[in-house]
Write the structure tokens for this entry.
Amino acid sequence: MAQHRDIPAWPAAVRTMALAALAAWAALVLLAAPARAQGLELANLTLDNHGGNLSVHFGLRVEGLDEVKAALDAGSELGLRCRVDIHRVRTLFFDNRVFGLDFESRLGFDRLAQEYSVELPGGGKPLRGKDLGALLAKAWGAVTLDLGPWKVLAPGHEYLLSLDVSLKRADVPAFVRVAAFFLSWDVLPATHYEQSFRY
């Protein structure tokens, strides 16, 4: 017959120290989160009809350049992702998505050449430079995306343009992202912009 032994309780001093350490860690995490990088700032968001196609133009300015530089210098590869959607606003039903497009750009640091590189969609030659701020202004300062034919927009309706922007670590394997789903891989906080218009 198995014997039952009492497990000794932790001393009160150890429990108090453990709770104090846990409370200090929670306070540090909660207070440090708002002090993170300022993020990505949108500039000059416009829509136009260019040769019968609906085009969206915008620029991005990196407010937290020090955080981006630190992540790149530590060896991380970063990915900028912009998701552009245009929905037709409807009152009684869910909004109807008319256009949707992703823009992705990779950012890295070449330790041998001691310069940063930005890959833009289209597979062209990456932009390179030693000044990260100037390089990002050149790469992301004026972005133009062709969404599709203008004629898809029906006259007399209200539309909503939404733009979601994030800058994440791109070199994290998928199984790590799934296993550590509770961690954020954002280098800068993700941002969301909306603009309504009538056609």
About this structure: Helices lie at 12-32, 65-73, 132-140, 174-179. The longest strand covers residues 96-110. The chain has one domain: 38-198.
